[in-house]
Write a structure and sequence with these properties.
2 helices; 6 strands; alpha+beta; about 130 residues
Length: about 130
Amino acid sequence: MPKQEIVSAELAKPNGHFAQATQARAAGRLVFISGMTARDAQGGVTGVGDITAQTHQVCQNVRAAVTEAGGTLDDVVRVDVYVRNMEDFDAIHAVRRQYFTGVAPASTMVEVSKFVNKDYLIEMNAIAVVGGEL
């Protein structure tokens, strides 16, 4: 699904790997991906204490969900990211650049005090527009 980055001269350049806004023709299917954490396929937590390892697992989990829906990470138009420590911003975005290689999705990142598992450092939900029939 093609998407277009929207850039306004009235806004500062993003300080991370995300677009100010993205535009997508919604002729496809909207896919709403629940919050993905660093849980691996067996249910264990990847990278306890390691934000880079956990961000890789989170991005892989988002990719698995959008792939199962018939899309790719290029179809993701928005992500919301929840982190335990905002000081991990740069490390998280370094990993995100490896997965979201086209137009970056619009994004919000918020620091939270707790997750459902004490070992989680990051959680990401996503919205994708995937072409084709159900």
